[in-house]
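Researcher: Please translate sequence to structure tokens.
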Amino acid sequence: MPEPIQRRKLYQEVLERLMGRIHAGEFPPDSQLPSERELMEQYGVGRPAVREALQAMERSGFVEIAHGERARVVDPTADRLIAQIAAGAQHLLRTKPDMLRHMKEARVFLETSTARMAAERATEEQVARLRQAIEEHRASMVNLEEFIERDMAFHREIADISGNPIFPSIVESMFRWASEFYTTLVRAPGAEELTLAEHQRIVDAIAAHDGDAAAEAMRAHLTRANELYRALGQQ
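Model: Translation complete:
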């Protein structure tokens, strides 16, 4: 039997038409949409329908709405796209413990690949930046929050060498989603030195343009470090 036609709410019609105009290029990134009053006149609807449509677009990351200003079309990037699911991802990790294990497995799969790509593609300048990142990471040992930020930045820097903007966005996002689970472990005495030593091995392999060694060093870092962090935290 054919499915019955669903009745649509007015805001959905407004949303669809606005999105069509954005996709057609009428409103490019960083441009402003017409005012609420103009949209009401253009589509022959009331203010509630227009506002609900704009709010739905904001929740989906298509526009930004500042108080007293017209909605502005967002410049789409991989970072923005992945940030849209951050809250949901963190909620999933908190409510379903098995998901943390699955995410760690996914992270190992992704980052061993980006380490291999970095070894194949890194320029001398990019290797120098990685070495500098380790020094900055070491200097941040006195500040836990900065140490964790430097840790994340190091992994993103490696993914960035791939040249694919999606990889660093995913690497950083997975790191941030699970960061609350790592904070107490990073506090454990000796954990910081372990992290820095393993990062150094990764960079040395990348500098030597040895893809296999870089991938293995990253795999060892992400798997062995988890177990050692756990042991350190129990001391």
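Researcher: Any highlights?
Model: Residues 231-235 have pLDDT under 50 and may be disordered.
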